[in-house]
Amino acid sequence: MKLILFFFFLFSLTSYSSENIVLVVSMDGVRHDYVDQPDLEAFRFLNENGLKAKSLIPVYQSSTFPSHVSMATGVTPEKHGIMHNSFYDRSKGTYSYSGEADWIQSPPIWAILEKQNIKTATYFWVGSETDWRGIDISYSKAPFDGEIGEEEKLNEIINWLTLKPELRPRLIMSWWRGTDSVSHRMGSTHPFVFEQLRKQDKILKKLIDEIGDLGLWNEVTLFVVSDHGMSDVSNFINIKKILNDSSIDARISLGPAVGHIFLNNKEEKDKAIQALEVNQYLSAWPIENLPSAYNMYHKDRTGDVVVTTTAPNMLVRGIISNPPKGMHGYNPKINDEMDGIFFAYGSGVRNKKIGKIDQIDIAPTILNILRVKIPEHMTGRIINLN
């Protein structure tokens, strides 16, 4: 098997130039089936001329921060440590939508490349606002500003691509709004979701065309991905009330689909689990029995008890005055509405369809394109693009 993988690696290297550039655009919340709409010009172009995966399987929790860090590190949350958009660490305290790279416990791909004197650039990618253990990004936009539109990002991407070769980044990663916000507000299949996607598609087509006008498609490989999909929600389960009603004293670190319960009295594990599982829509485990397939065990960031639910249910810690209609974070192994998109186009990419791939496959595939040795700690596989 190792010999087969070695020859595959050598074969794939021949498809890319020594100066290949990888551009990754991530559209937040674009579910795998959203892009089947016939009036999406950019996605139709990518489908007809590039590579399309059946879907991109997110990590669990299938949320923006752990997903983007998994794509950037090639490992799952239990290894890189970003458990959700916000979480609790027994040693460091609370993480909440932080741009601080020090919370990431596995090297991001830009740090791997910069350490080898390969320039990188990010325009709003989770964990890229500060240096990682003393390794900085050559070009990075910070701090995050949700008001900045995709047109401005497009212009900066083109600026980076037109720098002199010795200054040009070989990896560019950019987060785009996608359809996340509108599908949270309106529901996963509301017409406004597809109206927003058409706007994103229009800018993506402009990016594709401008790179073509520059004559760069023989050296640029484009990935268009998303961090997660979306499911409709209608039932809200108050975890704090359940624990309070059973007189269980705990710190709650809650996502919409997964909750980490840090008990002040460890002897109350069974009591907490019993209280939670009275609700038919909840499943709960003590940390020592957490299913390994969840890839969610972290000695400092996993609760003493972990509680999960499935759509259309959502975990909350109180009464919500304006509840969302769409949500993500659920287990992608049992809910394929969590799956996102993966398209590739450009240098070294053949027009074909492939099956489902994992988010942790993104980082090793980028390193393969850039002819950089893949670290042994990465658990993703190389995607065969050609």
Q: Which descriptors apply to this entry?
A:
386 residues; alpha/beta; Alkaline Phosphatase, subunit A; Gyrase A, domain 2; 2 domains; eight-stranded mixed beta sheet; four-stranded antiparallel beta sheet; 11 helices; 20 strands; 28% helix; globular; disordered N terminus
Question: How would you explain this protein's 3D organization?
Answer:
This protein is of the alpha/beta class. It folds into 2 domains: 2-225 and 334-369, Alkaline Phosphatase, subunit A (3-Layer(aba) Sandwich); 235-323, 2-Layer Sandwich (Gyrase A, domain 2). It contains 11 helices and 20 strands. The chain has helices at residues 2-13, 41-49, 64-73, 77-80, 109-115, 150-161, 180-186, 191-213, 239-245, 269-277, 362-369, and strands at 21-27, 51-53, 56-57, 86-89, 93-96, 120-123, 139-141, 171-176, 220-225, 231-232, 235-238, 250-254, 258-263, 283-286, 305-308, 313-316, 326-327, 342-346, 352-354, 357-358. It has an 8-stranded mixed β-sheet with strand order 7-6-8-1-9-18-2-19. β4 (86-89) and β5 form a beta hairpin. The radius of gyration is 21 Å and the shape is globular. Residues 1-5 and 10-14 have low confidence and may be disordered.
